[in-house]
Design goal:
It is built from six helices and three strands, in the order H-E-H-H-E-E-H-H-H. The chain has helices at residues 6-18, 23-31, 38-51, 71-86, 91-101, 106-123, and strands at residues 21-22, 54-57, 64-67. Strands 1-3-2 form a three-stranded antiparallel sheet.
Length: 124
């Protein structure tokens, strides 16, 4: 899988949420949080299509784009790469650093505990 750049990942995140969208729709959503030009959004999405990250329906006047790669697969790949390169392959170090950067809510901690309990049960 082609590893998406930060800008490409922003667009993918929007398309995973929106399911499909024109360049204009993606650009309008990006413009809500950052200053970017329409032609920049267009160019990035054209590059993403060429890299196989997006598929494009060009039947109508406005091309409609969809993510060609799955959110879960992309997250797993990026996380595996991050864990290998930044944390020496240690899941423990990655999780400890992630939890230390934020102040998780009680609900989040309960979910994490339930997930860990489930992992332990699967291993026994």
């Amino acid at each position: 899988m082609n590893k998406p750049t930060e800008a490409e990942l922003e667009i993918l995140s929007l398309l995973w949420e929106m399911k499909e969208a024109s360049v204009r729709q993606v650009h309008e959503r990006l413009a809500e949080t950052k200053e970017t030009g329409y032609t920049t959004t267009l160019k990035i999405m054209q590059i993403m299509h060429a890299k196989g990250l997006l598929e494009r329906d060009d039947q109508s006047r406005s091309h409609i784009y969809r993510a060609k790669i799955k959110k879960g697969d992309t997250q797993k790949s990026l996380l595996k790469n991050l864990m290998t390169t930044a944390f020496g392959g240690s899941a423990k170090n990655l999780v400890m650093q992630a939890l230390g950067q934020d102040n998780p809510s009680r609900e989040e901690l309960d979910e994490i505990r339930a997930f860990l309990d489930d992992l332990e049960q699967k291993k026994s």
